[in-house]
Structure formats: structure tokens, C-alpha cells
């Protein structure tokens, strides 16, 4: 995909989308925050093919830690390569395309102890990344987060801010919001912030519970929050009268409706479902990466 050139009105973290309908430009002024404009979506994934795919990756490719989390992130990266509007965000009441970078954030426990510290990781993917690329990048980021303790960039910035009096923290956050509104957020803060990303994902299956509908953050630019839960089993009646056992994972999506229209979202979720039912395609790069409209 050819890199777009920056023009007046673009930000260092995105390109202004200029050829949308008039309603698209007005809606961010009417629905001013992400919580104002959150849409809730839920779905489920049948695990037959995915479990076989995971076993194959672990056995034949040597990816011992490969799991459903990697399949889901790789599927979303592939979705963005074909539906680039899913990688837009709202800033300063304007709609931007994040470009080639697909930044995925998640919280990582230092250990599985109840009171263990959490740290945020941000992993940058490209639209043509394969499942192998996703696995390697995620493993590096998770390993570093657990080994560094509270010395990764996000924890350092958060610790410094936490030393300030409460009123100064409120003032600092207000200043950062003002700077981010106009695209002047310091890059080191942007790099550390888990609130500036393409998607936030949480694996509640590791806690043994169903997925929740997690709110979007008004601070930052994250337009999608994805959660998936524990595996469940369903007994399903077949046409011949027999009963089959199937495994599913339920997932939820909270999205910023302002980045694109309902028809586009519907087609995107249908395509995500198709990708998840054909996980083998994630081993190859996409035939083409579709650019967003100007």
C-alpha cells in the first residue's frame, strides 16, 4: 500500500478523511464524546476449525503459546486490510484514518495472582501481517511487560503523573486533552498511552467469565473495544434428528459509530465472521491491502 502524503489538516498520527457525507462531518459535533456515540454488538465464534488451526500452529509451526487471542487479533488485522474505515478515529471533532499502523492495546497481568499488578501493552501491526507476525509481536510485547515489572513506558509515565497532587493531575490531563484535540500531544505520551490505539482487546476467557461490554475511553482516540469470554459448549439439533456438541466463544464489541456508517459496520462484522471461519487464510498475506478513501 502506497504511503499517503501528509497535507494541511492531517495529524502526525492520522490522515484527515475529507470525502465523506455531510452528516459524517456534523455527527462528531452532535455526539461529542465516544460514550455519547457507542454502539454495542455481540457475536459468537464456532471453534471447530479454529481449534484445529491452533493445534496445527502449535504442532507443525512450533508456536507453543499460540491461542485464540492471536487468531482474533490476526483476524482483526486482516479485516482492517480490507475494511480500512475500521482504523479511523475521531479527534478534535474530525475524522481521521490511522494509516498503515494498526495499534492494538491490552492489559497484561504480571502474574496470575489476584492482586498482581497490571500493565498496558501496545503492539503495532501492519495491514499485511500474518498470524505468525501477530504471534511473534504479541509474544515479545507480553514477555517484555512481564519482565520489566513497572519499568515499561506506560508505567513510568503513569508513576510520574501519580506523584503530582490531585489538582495538578486534573490540570495536566486537561492540558493533554486540549493538545490532543489539536493534534499536538507530545509523541512520547502518545506512544505510552494505551488510550491512543486502533483497538483495545481484553481476554476474559482467561478469567473464566463471559465477555462484558467495555466502555470506550473519552481520553485518547480508541474507537473499538473488543472483549471475548470463556469457551462454552452447546448441544445442537441437526436436520436428521441427531444432536451434536459444538464449542463457541462469545465476543462483544463497543464501537464509535461516528467513524463510519451502519452498513459498513455490518459488512465488516460479516467479513470478520468469515475470516474466523477460515483461519487458514491468516497464514498468507492478503492479495491486496485496500486503502481508505481520501
The overall pLDDT, averaged over residues, is 92
Number of helices: 8
Q: Quick one: how many beta strands?
A: 9
Distance between the termini: 14 Å
The rounded Rg comes to 20 Å
Taking pLDDT < 50 over at least 5 consecutive residues as the criterion, the unreliable ranges are none
Give the helix/strand class: alpha+beta
- What's the helix-strand series? EHEHHEEEEHHHHEEEH
Tell me the strand percentage band: 15-25%
Report the sheet with the most strands, covering strand number, pairing sense and barrel closure: 6 strands, mixed
Widest sheet: strand ordering: 2-9-8-7-5-6
Helix content: 25-40%
Which descriptor suits the 3D outline? globular
Structure description:
The protein is of the alpha+beta class. Helix content is 34%, strand content 23%. It is built from eight helices and nine strands. It has helices at 22-30, 48-59, 68-82, 131-147, 153-162, 166-181, 187-192, 262-277; strands at residues 15-16, 38-46, 88-91, 94-97, 102-109, 118-125, 199-203, 224-237, 243-256. The strands form two sheets. Strands 2-9-8-7-5-6 form a six-stranded mixed beta sheet. A three-stranded antiparallel beta sheet has the order 1-4-3, with helices on one face. Strand 3 (88-91) and strand 4 (94-97) form a beta hairpin. The two termini are 14 Å apart. The model has no long low-confidence stretch (mean pLDDT 92).
Amino acid at each position: 500500500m502506497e504511503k499517503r502524503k501528509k497535507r494541511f489538516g492531517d495529524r502526525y498520527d492520522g490522515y484527515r478523511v475529507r470525502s465523506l457525507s455531510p452528516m459524517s462531518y456534523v455527527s462528531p459535533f452532535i455526539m461529542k464524546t465516544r460514550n455519547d456515540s457507542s454502539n454495542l454488538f455481540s457475536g459468537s465464534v464456532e471453534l471447530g476449525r479454529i481449534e484445529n488451526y491452533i493445534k496445527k500452529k502449535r504442532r507443525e509451526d512450533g508456536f507453543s503459546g499460540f491461542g485464540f487471542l492471536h487468531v482474533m487479533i490476526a483476524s482483526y488485522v486482516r479485516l482492517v486490510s480490507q475494511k480500512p474505515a475500521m482504523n479511523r478515529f475521531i479527534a478534535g471533532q474530525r475524522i481521521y484514518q490511522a494509516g498503515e499502523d494498526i495499534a492494538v492495546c491490552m492489559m497484561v497481568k504480571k502474574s496470575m495472582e489476584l492482586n498482581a499488578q497490571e500493565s498496558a501493552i501496545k503492539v503495532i501491526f501492519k495491514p499485511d501481517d500474518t498470524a505468525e507476525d501477530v504471534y511473534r509481536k504479541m509474544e515479545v510485547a507480553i514477555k517484555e511487560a512481564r519482565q520489566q515489572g513497572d519499568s515499561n513506558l506506560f508505567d513510568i509515565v503513569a508513576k510520574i503523573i501519580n506523584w503530582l497532587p490531585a489538582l495538578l493531575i486534573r490540570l495536566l490531563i486537561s492540558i493533554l486533552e486540549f493538545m490532543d484535540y489539536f493534534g499536538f500531544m507530545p509523541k512520547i505520551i502518545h506512544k505510552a498511552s494505551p488510550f491512543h490505539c486502533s483497538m483495545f482487546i481484553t481476554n476474559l476467557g482467561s478469567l473464566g467469565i463471559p465477555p462484558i461490554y467495555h466502555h470506550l475511553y473519552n481520553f485518547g482516540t480508541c474507537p473499538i473495544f473488543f472483549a471475548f469470554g470463556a469457551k462454552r459448549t452447546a448441544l445442537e439439533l441437526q436436520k436428521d434428528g441427531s444432536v451434536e456438541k459444538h464449542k463457541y466463544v462469545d465476543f462483544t464489541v463497543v464501537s464509535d459509530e461516528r467513524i463510519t456508517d451502519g452498513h459498513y459496520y455490518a459488512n465488516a462484522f460479516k467479513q470478520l465472521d468469515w475470516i474466523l471461519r477460515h483461519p487458514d487464510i491468516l497464514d498468507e498475506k492478503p492479495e491486496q491491502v485496500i486503502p481508505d478513501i481520501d
